[in-house]
């Protein structure tokens, strides 16, 4: 979708689209992990071990993907720094 957006799709923040995309993805994945924790507690309260397992696996996947997004962001920022910084790219 970002191909359809203008270079200034993030407003006047000076943040490149891909930087914003990685930050946003990591944030939303971490939010999903936090929400899954609530669902785990609900399933435990109900005594439903099948749902505890499902929500735990879901939380673990969110956390794994968030860690991957953070690593990609760090690499991306490192590459951007070498080319003169994010604002200039």
Summarize the structure.
The protein is elongated.
The main β sheet shows up as: none
Could you tell me how far the N terminus lies from the C terminus, measured between alpha carbons in angstroms? Answer: 20 Å
The helicity comes to over 70%
Order of helices and strands: HH
Structural class, from secondary structure content? mainly alpha
Radius of gyration: 18 Å
Count of DSSP H/I helices: 2
Oligomeric state = single chain
Into which percentage range does the β-strand content fall? under 5%
The total beta strand count reads 0
Poorly predicted regions: none
- Morphology: elongated
Mean pLDDT: 85
Features:
mainly alpha
Secondary structure layout:
Blueprint: H1 17-46, H2 49-82
Give a written overview of the molecule.
This protein has helices at 17-46, 49-82. The protein has 89 residues and is mainly α. Helix 1 (17-46) packs antiparallel against helix 2. The mean pLDDT is 85.
